[in-house]
C-alpha cells in the first residue's frame, strides 16, 4: 500500500465513523473511533477493498451480512469494489456499532452520570433526577434507533428524521432494566402515524415482520391512515421476537 492509498483509506474512514488510525503496515491500516468500540482492518488487494472486523459486538456481523455479503476467502471479511461502496460499508459498521447492545446503555450511563453530577446536591435523588434519567434514556434510544435503521422508517423507508419516532415494543415504564429500555431490538423506528398506532397497540408485527392490524380500526380508518395488510418491516432480527411477543399479546381486538 503506497502513501496515497493509505491517505485515501484514512480519509474514507474518518468521514464514515472511524476517525482514529491505530496502526498502518504495507498491507493494511487499522481504524477505530471514540464513539464506539469496534475496530476494523482495511486493505486494498487487487483493486478492491477488504474490511476485516477485529473487535465488535457479536451481533454486528450477522446484521452486516443482511446487506453486505461475506468474502469467499473464509476469513469473515467483507470485500467491496469501489470507494463509494467502502464508504457505505464503513458508515453501516459504525452505525451498527453505536446501536447494538450494549452501546446505548453505555452511552446512557455516561451521559446520565455527567448530568447528575452537574445537578445541585439538593436535587439529586429527587423527581428532577428521575426526569433527567428518562430524558437522556429516550434520547439515547432514539439515537440508537436512527443508527440501526439508517434514519429511515422500519416499514415505509421514509427518511425524514423529523417525522420519525423511536417506538418501544415493551413500554419504557414496563421494562425491568435499563438494558431492556435501551435495547435497539425493543421496538422500531416508525413514522409518526405508525408510531402512534404501535404505541396504542393498534398495530403490531408477526414473526416474519408482516403488519398485524387491530380489528377496532375500520376500513375507513385504514384508508385514511394509508394502512394495508401487505405492509411489513424492512427486516426483522431474531432478537426482536421476545419484545414483539410481548407487544402482540397487547394488540387490541373488538370484544
Enumerate how many helices there are, as a single number.
9
What is the terminal separation in angstroms? 69 Å
Major β-sheet, in short? 5 strands, antiparallel
Strand fraction equals 15-25%
Rg computed from alpha carbons, rounded to a whole number of angstroms: 21 Å
* pLDDT < 50 runs, ≥5 residues: none
User: How many domains, as an integer?
Assistant: 2
Number of strands: 9
Secondary-structure-derived class: alpha+beta
Strand arrangement in the largest pleated sheet: 1-2-3-4-5
- What pattern of helices and strands is seen along the backbone? HEEEEHEHHHEHEHEEHH
Mean pLDDT equals 93
**C-alpha geometry:** globular
Helicity range of the residues? 25-40%
Structure description:
The chain is α+β, with helices and mostly antiparallel strands. The chain has two domains: 3-99, Aspartate Aminotransferase, domain 1 (Alpha-Beta Complex), CATH 3.90.1150; 103-248, no CATH class. Helices cover 39% and strands 16% of the residues. It contains nine helices and nine strands. It has a five-stranded antiparallel β-sheet. A two-stranded antiparallel sheet has the order 6-7. Strands 8-9 form a two-stranded antiparallel ribbon. A hairpin with a 6-residue loop joins strand 2 (28-32) and strand 3 (39-43). Helix 3 (83-99) runs antiparallel to helix 5 (127-148) and helix 4 packs antiparallel against helix 5. The longest helix has 22 residues, at 127-148. The mean pLDDT is 93.
Task: Give a nutshell description of this structure.
The chain is α+β, with helices and mostly antiparallel strands and 255 residues long. It has helices spanning 3-15, 60-64, 83-99, 103-118, 127-148, 178-181, 192-199, 219-225, 241-248; strands spanning 20-24, 28-32, 39-43, 49-55, 77-80, 164-168, 187-191, 203-205, 211-213. α3 (83-99) packs antiparallel against α5 (127-148) and α4 runs antiparallel to α5 (127-148).
